[in-house]
Amino acid sequence: MNNISKHITYSEATRSQTATKNGIENSPSEQQLVAMCILAEKVFEPLRIHVAGPVAINSFFRSVELNKKLGGSSTSQHCKGEAMDIDDTYGHMSNADMFNFIKDNLDFDQMIWEYGNNDNPDWVHVSYKKSGNRKEILRCQRLNGKTVYSHY
Q1: From residue 29, how far is each of 14, 52, 57, 77 by CA, in Å?
Q2: Global model pTM greater than 0.90
Q3: Are strands 146-151 and 136-143 parallel, antiparallel or unpaired?
Q4: In CATH, what number is assigned to the domain containing residue 102?
Q5: Number of domains in the chain
Q6: What are 112's strand-pairing partners?
Q7: Are 68 and 93 in contact (CB under 8 A)?
């Protein structure tokens, strides 16, 4: 497969320096691939049009082994192909602007303001399920050396 969507290549969606460095297989199943395509169609592509430029994907699909190596949640939607972490490293729109656009205009299952400060997260985690999206919005912060999630 060459592309997950118009602006996401298969390689970009499955790329991981950690997987490469540690010899971890990071290939989605057909079911996971379908979920990835749906997330790209319903969230990423409308966001990409709004941003009017590239949006960096820090993390998309993660195999269970890769997710464990990264210290991810055992219930991570990344492992199902339903979540991605995005970051505007290209300067077209701030992470806060992208967060607010998704919140106000798109359907999603969960969105997390990842670290950062009150003005801008370091990146945005967003997930989408084929059905039953919760529109749950969280904020992730490090307090006293621990990662804490709270409702946004």
Answers
A1: 12, 31, 20, 14
A2: yes
A3: antiparallel
A4: 3.30.1380.10
A5: 1
A6: 125, 138
A7: no
